[in-house]
């Protein structure tokens, strides 16, 4: 890889990265590293890795003929970083790998924490609270675990008292929206006109007592990026069920 391609690669990386020679002196540094140390390219080349990052003996590591990749927690400008130092090998005259320097990458632990939180598996513990003995029910739970990860509406059908709400809540907590509110509404307990108002909202003065406009259940769920659960099949008015289809 030529120098231009290497520089382009370094500049594309969000983490601070720089290379050092066998004396520990900085050779190349990407913009993130320059920003972290508040130095321009010329000034950072006059620095050694030990001057930039205290508490780690770069010279001893470089002098080790069997230098291996190493990770170390370091503090730079009151910020915690995980430092990855990787040897650069080139073949010598005997075509044997020889250490000629190293690449140092600094990963912000705060940024890593946010990334891990975003990538971590969503809460699956709610499924553990559902007792399933029969092969059929176990199959339902296995399918629900998979379907919960899809960004799409999920219809759960079952007789009264079979635990649809519990399963819906478990799917929500496992879904990409699991950290957002789960909104539940039992249409069987509401008159048709009230259910319609709760589901779709109403304007101010739409009916006696409606002093202020109210967002519907579906809109509230979308705004919060959470889930809207409702128990209504065979109990909600046909008009309400038909109106919900576009939602």
UniProtKB/TrEMBL annotation:
It comes from the Bacteria. SUPFAM superfamilies: P-loop containing nucleoside triphosphate hydrolases (SSF52540), PYP-like sensor domain (PAS domain) (SSF55785). Residues 130-219 form the Sigma-54 factor interaction domain. One of its GO terms (molecular function) is ATP binding. The keyword Nucleotide-binding applies. Keywords: ATP-binding, Nucleotide-binding. Residues 2-48 form the PAS domain. GO terms for biological process: regulation of DNA-templated transcription. Gene3D superfamilies: P-loop containing nucleotide triphosphate hydrolases (3.40.50.300), PAS domain (3.30.450.20). This is Transcriptional regulatory protein tyrR. It comes from Serratia rubidaea (Serratia marinorubra). The gene is tyrR_1.
């Amino acid at each position: 890889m030529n120098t231009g391609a290497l520089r382009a690669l370094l500049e594309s990386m969000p983490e601070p990265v720089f290379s050092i020679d066998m004396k520990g002196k900085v050779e190349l540094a990407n913009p993130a590293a320059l920003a972290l140390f508040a130095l321009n390219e010329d000034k950072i080349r006059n620095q050694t890795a030990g001057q930039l990052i205290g508490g780690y003996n770069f010279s001893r590591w470089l002098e080790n003929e069997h230098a291996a990749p190493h990770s170390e927690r370091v503090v730079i400008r009151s910020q915690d970083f995980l430092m990855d130092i990787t040897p650069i090998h080139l073949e010598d005259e005997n075509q044997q790998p020889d250490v000629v320097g190293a690449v140092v990458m600094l990963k912000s632990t705060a940024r890593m924490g946010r990334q891990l939180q975003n990538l971590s598996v969503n809460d699956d513990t709610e499924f553990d609270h559902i007792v399933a003995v029969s092969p059929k029910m176990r199959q339902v739970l296995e399918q629900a675990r998979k379907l919960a990860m899809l960004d799409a509406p999920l219809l759960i059908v079952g007789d009264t008292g079979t635990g649809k709400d519990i399963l819906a809540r478990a799917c929500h907590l496992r879904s990409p929206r699991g950290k957002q509110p789960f909104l539940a509404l039992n249409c069987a307990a509401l008159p048709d006109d009230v259910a319609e108002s709760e589901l779709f909202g109403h304007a101010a003065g739409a009916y006696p007592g409606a002093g202020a406009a109210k967002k519907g259940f579906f809109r509230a769920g979308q705004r919060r990026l959470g889930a809207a659960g409702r128990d209504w099949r065979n109990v909600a008015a046909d008009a309400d069920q038909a109106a919900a289809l576009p939602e």
